[in-house]
Amino acid sequence: MFRAIHLEQSADKATVASLKELDDAALPTVDKGVTVDVAYSTINYKDGLAITGKSPVVRKWPMVPGIDFAGTVSASDDPAWKPGDSVVLNGWGVGETHWGGLAQKARVDGDWLIALPAPLTLADAMAIGTAGYTAMLCVLALEQRGVQPDAGEILVTGASGGVGSVAISLLAKRGYKVVASTGKAAEAGYLESLGAAEVIDRATLSAPGKPLQKERWAGVVDSVGSHTLANACASTRYGGTVAACGLAQGMDLPVTVAPFILRGVALIGVDSVMAPKAVRTAAWARLAQDIDRRALASIARQVSLAEALETAPQILAGSIRGRVVVDVNR
Ligand code: NDP
What is the pTM of this model? Predict the structure, then answer.
């Protein structure tokens, strides 16, 4: 038996979330299946949506949520993995269409796993989590477009959130000048401690703005979408790059083509869920090399599986600072 957060759908289509003891035999059957003793999972924005039922993230019922986990292989039908291997999983529809990480056990396709890169611990990997791995994908997107640390200011929106916090830390460590946009004035000290050179009020970006604005940003990491992303594009410098990964403000994008056709701005979409294995392995290798583990300690806090249930609505309210790691054995 193992403990898990369990999501069911009621007759009136409401999501009912509870902590349950489940039988190992209930774990999904998978080709090349690998059974993992989960050590840590996390509460990502998408997990908040799944657990509260606020958005139709869950596609199969019942579901164990949790879009990521880190743990140790206990059994494997995939020759690539053996008992005792330390592994990390992000995305692939886990926690949406396939039972996820908010449980003491998971059974997944071996192709979805990557080896935990040294010197990261299982706890480090989930302090980074899908949000931090996505932040790394955004940083790589800027680098691939030639945005170097001396290029100018980099805007990070949703700064106090999971993606934002890790992005600031990664960029600052590489020598970029980071400007953090936040709605939480009280977190200015936290954002500066992660390496932000300047903290701005997100209200300066979140309302409808002009199609072209004063050129300021050499690059942008945006986890917010909507008017914030539109304004970020409109104020990106000639030839700059905007990496867009999120929708915390909204799914809309009220932008014109002006920044793209008059300033050669590139808007790069970043997806972590279906990213090919080579891309995710490269991102995790860079995380293992670049992540500041002292910063991680201030970014992440741990909760139990039961406490994870209470955290879900808080992440949707945008009231959580940094990352929430779930110790599934607590
Ligand atoms: P968090 O909730 O931790 O952070 C989001 C932050 O956005 C908040 O902390 C807040 O920061 C800001 N925010 C919240 N509401 C609003 C609003 N109405 N207007 C402007 N800013 C707002 O989430 P994550 O960092 O984990 O994820 C951020 C986004 O990225 C989500 O939309 C998520 O779905 C997406 N995502 C996408 C992935 C992909 O593969 N593309 C992978 C992972 C995440 P502050 O108070 O500092 O302004």
Answer: 0.97
